[in-house]
Amino acid sequence: MASHDAHAGHDHEAHGSDGHAGHSHGPGHAHAPASFGKAFAIGIALNVGFVAVEATYGVLSNSVALLADAGHNLSDVLGLVVAWVAMVLAKRAPSARYTYGMKGSSILAALFNAVFLLVAVGAIAWEAIQRFGEPAPVAGKTVMIVAAVGILVNGITAWLFASGAKGDINIKGAFLHMAADAAVSAGVVIAGLVILYTGWTWLDPVVSLAIVAVIVWSTWGLLRDSLTLSLAAVPPGIDPDAVRSHLEGLPGVAALHDLHVWAMSTTETCLTAHLVMPGGRPDDAFLMTAAKGIKERFGIGHTTLQVETSADTPCALAPDHVV
């Protein structure tokens, strides 16, 4: 990794194994599985098939509601495709221009899916509000049956991604999309049944708005975290003050500056820092041990440390010398 200042000859890189360190760190942290390729393939196939069935029944039953929901589910297929493409791109090898590869695409995909999902629920909320003034006809049996199938399809798809939702926000985006669709379908079935027996047409928009509130609440964290990572901020779950204290406590370290911690992808974190060690340059064992300690304690798998020993030629990036 290139030096950040003129002391190029003094750089010492201490790299931990670049594993999939998650962003909720600590002892015993369970990392997300490395690949969800099969889950994406099954999920996309199930949902494309469901969209085809839903659209067909929508045409045959002349149901605008079914056709609209088919379009909504088709947009969720797009969300799955975006997340899958990002996962594949993240595995590409680095190049001369993309020196980290395309790992950051997983962060962009998570951000896209968060925004996409919020726009979708915004449309649902708008439709629900309009129905208070103009109540829609009670959902027919065909609509309810298709919605029940939607619960099954989307529920299975969400389950395929559930195990990785905590360790990878790209996978979390896919999970939330499918879980949200399952919730919307469940709302259609429940509201439809109650309205058939009570005639309470106002229940349909109320249930829709309640589902929207739940989805917004669960999606807000995805939006916040993906936006944070896209701005190269310290990933959630890592305490930058704790990282600083840990590095300052290493044997022989008199001072520390130019500390940076950021996400290389939704599952990998990087750290660079300048260590001031007046007692002399450490050996490779010190650097390897430091990198290992950072990985074990904070889950940061890609560490680069620059060692500076001379007080006569201060680093250009030291706090007193930053322009």
Automatic annotation (TrEMBL):
| Start and end residues of each stretch annotated as Disordered | 1-30
According to the entry, every stretch annotated as the Cation efflux protein cytoplasmic domain falls at 235-309
Q: Which residues cross the membrane?
A: 39-57, 106-126, 138-162, 174-200, 206-223
The reply to whether Translocase figures as a keyword in the UniProt entry is: no
Q: Which SUPFAM superfamilies match?
A: Cation efflux protein cytoplasmic domain-like, Cation efflux protein transmembrane domain-like
- Compositionally biased intervals (Basic and acidic residues): 1-21
Keywords of the record, alphabetical order, are:
Ion transport, Membrane, Transmembrane, Transmembrane helix, Transport, Zinc, Zinc transport
Q: Which InterPro entries match?
A: Cation_efflux, Cation_efflux_CTD, Cation_efflux_CTD_sf, Cation_efflux_TM, Cation_efflux_TMD_sf, CDF/SLC30A
Q: Which family does it belong to?
A: Belongs to the cation diffusion facilitator (CDF) transporter (TC 2.A.4) family. SLC30A subfamily.
Full protein name: Cobalt transporter
* Natural source organism: Methylobacterium brachythecii
